[in-house]
Amino acid sequence: MTVLSRQFFHDEAAAYTMLESILWPFGPVCPHCGAIDRIYRIKPNKAKRVRLGLCKCGHCRGQFTVKVRTVFEQSHVPLNVWFQAVYLMCSSKKGISSNQLHRALGVTLKTAWFMSHRIRAAMDESAIKPIGGWGHIVEIDETFIGHDKTIKPKGEKKGRGAQHKYKVLSLVDRATGLSKSMVVDDVSARTLVPIIRANVARESRVMTDEAAQYRSLARYFANHGTVHHTADQYVSPTDPTVHTQTIEGYFSIFKRGMKGVYQHCGPQHLNRYLAEFDFRYSNRKALGIDDAERTIKALAGIVGKRLTYKSTGSQPQA
């Protein structure tokens, strides 16, 4: 049986049961007061229609479903359709566009766009503790993407150089396979070094290219290895562990997705797209996590990440 043929992808009641098993493994929890006892199921009758999965707390008397205080709250899209959208985004290595979700799920483009942003919010693991540690190697690099219209390139044709592009800093832990990425204002040492120190454990070995902004990292970490890309050196001739090939592989997937699938991305959304690519990369098949497990992990991240259409700050794009 294929994953998408499972009942919770096609039956809303089964989807509620599945989501409750993920978020409430020990039984319902009141999102209003936090109670775990004296919670009652409200069953429908002939005189009254009741929402699926509706519960009532015997302490605060509040009513709720498993969707309250999650990215699914107040959504009119059936929960089983939400499950399909989460699975499609989790199983598409380079992402899936809002237009494709709109066609595959039978919802409007505006709805598909908003759904995809809510799912990216659920995928956001930026709050996880610093990566790296004793014996870990963390690769660090920056890349440039898009076109920041607020900056005019000096003496360059449009599309050439990096001055007018958005700046992205990424970190990849070779030992665990975890990645963390963020949009930065510039790529100076003053900007990057504090971010790196806050997100990488000081016991780690760090690997970078020869860029000047990384020269001080040896002071803050167990070891700092560099490769000289300008001299066509991609692996150190004296130490084969010194390279940044892993993070280059991450950038390859990220750029293929952003240019080939999404194509357009406003600056206010770029961090969400980075969270999406980080999530799939940190939970990939090479680490023993298949599409179904990745989907369940994304669903477990929906709590406390309420996102409204107005707060997304833009109109639908690809």
Class of the domain at 137-267, according to the CATH hierarchy? Answer: Alpha Beta
Largest sheet: 5 strands, mixed
Cα distance, first to last residue?
Answer: 32 Å
Rg on CA atoms, Å: 22 Å
What is the multimeric organization of the chains shown? single chain
Description:
- The strands form 2 sheets. A 5-stranded mixed beta sheet has the order 6-5-4-7-8, with helices on both faces. The chain has a 3-stranded antiparallel beta sheet with strand order 1-2-3, with no helix packed on it.
- It contains 9 helices and 8 strands.
- By secondary structure, the protein is α/β, with parallel strands linked by helices.
Defining key terms:
single chain, 318 residues, alpha/beta, Nucleotidyltransferase, domain 5, five-stranded mixed beta sheet, three-stranded antiparallel beta sheet, 9 helices, 13% strand, elongated
Give the topology.
Layout: H1 12-23, E1 39-41, E2 55-57, E3 63-64, H2 79-91, H3 98-105, H4 109-123, E4 137-145, E5 166-173, E6 179-184, H5 189-199, E7 205-209, E8 223-227, H6 245-262, H7 270-282, H8 291-300, H9 309-312
Parallel strand pairs: 4-7, 7-8
Antiparallel strand pairs: 1-2, 2-3, 4-5, 5-6
Helix pairs in contact: 1-2, 2-8, 3-4, 4-7, 6-7
In short:
The protein is an alpha/beta fold.
